[in-house]
Amino acid sequence: MTRKMPVEWAKLDNAAKIFPPATTERDTKVFRFVCELKEEIDKDILQKALDATLELFPIYKSVLRRGVFWYYFEDTELKPVVSEDHKLPCNMIYHQNRRNLLFEVSYYKCRINVEMYHALADGTGAMQFLKTLAYHYIIMKYETDFDGLIPDFDYDASFTQKNDDSFLKHYSGDKSIVNVKLNKAYHINGRRYIDNRIKIIEGEMSVKEVLAIAHRYDTTMTIYLAALFMKAIYEDMPARARKTPVALAVPVNLRAYFPSVTARNFFTTINLSYHFGKNLDRLEDIIQSLKESFHRELTMDNMRKHIDRLSALEHNVFMRVVPLILKDYVLRIAHGISNRTITAALSNIGRVTVCKELTPYIRLFDCFTSANRPQICMCSFGDRLVISFTSPFIGTDIQKNFFRALTNEGVNLTIASNIKDI
Length: 422
Hints:
Blueprint: E1 9-11, H1 19-22, E2 30-37, H2 43-54, E3 62-66, E4 71-75, E5 83-84, E6 103-108, E7 111-117, H3 123-141, H4 159-162, H5 166-170, E8 199-206, H6 207-216, H7 221-234, E9 246-253, E10 267-274, H8 283-297, H9 300-315, H10 317-320, H11 324-339, E11 344-351, E12 362-369, E13 375-381, E14 384-391, H12 397-408, E15 413-417
Parallel strand pairs: 5-6, 9-11, 11-13
Antiparallel strand pairs: 1-4, 2-7, 2-12, 3-4, 6-7, 8-14, 8-15, 9-10, 13-14
């Protein structure tokens, strides 16, 4: 058991600094991670499991405060309370004038939901929190099944490691980093719901089936699905819009490149583009282009440049003394400019693993995020792959194009949605 240490206050990591000024009711910067068990959730046990889990993640017992120059996390005695899921998914969590926790835990039938504000953690950190919560819930509810032999948990990072600002730790201080040229991308438009709800469409399928198709195209699952996504967008593009490329924002887990087990943010984003007005629309050509882009972008040298670029603002002497109100203004403008370079987003959390003793109790894991543009999030558990499409728009043509392409390739899938008008 990791010993709890006090967290009085902590600076936001470099990836997190953009989220508070960029948060709106249309784009809440909240994501949801789901663990679906095979039996309905017991609320009281889930509350006990949450209390035990939070002892291992003290940084999550924080509220977000505004200082004169920077935002910061402040330790709080507020206690999270489990509730039955009743809110719109990925609704606002951070409110500038409220002192509240930056995550929420709810349940619905067999599902445990963790919703988290992105300034607190990235997908990897949130998944570790959810896995820890599921672990405590299962060993508490099914204690007699284990016959006194409680399984070991596979996330034994210390408090210091979980609280680590890995951007600061791996910042090289290179002052020669050149800013990346920003190119305008195709923007998807459509009618939105009046209450700013997001439309979620989940596709559940076999990992083996999708992998077999990806291997037929001599590529990875991520590249294959990214290519399908791009083609689905292209099929819905007006002809006049094809003069601009389709660009996907793809988050990259920096823990794969630098030693870190932080429960906070440690990711960057790469943009992958394909110009349908200048290239063929065959899936094979899109895949080949994406393979070249991934090979070019995903290098240790480039990842280090991403860290240095993200850290440059914090280490800039002039920006340190600029009041937060002006920083917010600059960051909102920068966020808006960055959005012009993105058509949609795709995030692959990857394969979720738990200790073998817990596997029989879990059916699947799922994840999705708030979105001001169409976005895919996906993860797998065993042979179950869940691809969740979130979109702020009422229309579903892109989603239909994407899932129809999978079924045309022979993938058997089950579709579910939070809104019935699909």
